[in-house]
What we know:
The chain is an alpha+beta fold. It has a domain at 21-61. Helices cover 54% and strands 20% of the residues. Strand 1 (2-7) and strand 2 (13-18) form a beta hairpin. Helix 1 (22-33) packs antiparallel against helix 2 (39-59). It is elongated.
Amino acid sequence: MSKGSDRFLNGIKVSYSVPQSERLNKLQRYFSRAKKGSKNRVKEAGILGDVKGSIMSQFMP
């Protein structure tokens, strides 16, 4: 879960949290455990980028 907070110009502070999907957590785990420079790491980076892109497109109009 990603947590954050923002403060507006009028001084109001807002805290929020965004849950991460299980698939994203799993892909990040595979990516972090892969050896640097390996073909599997390159493949995982591509898949991870696609998943993150699809998630970000849900939040960006």
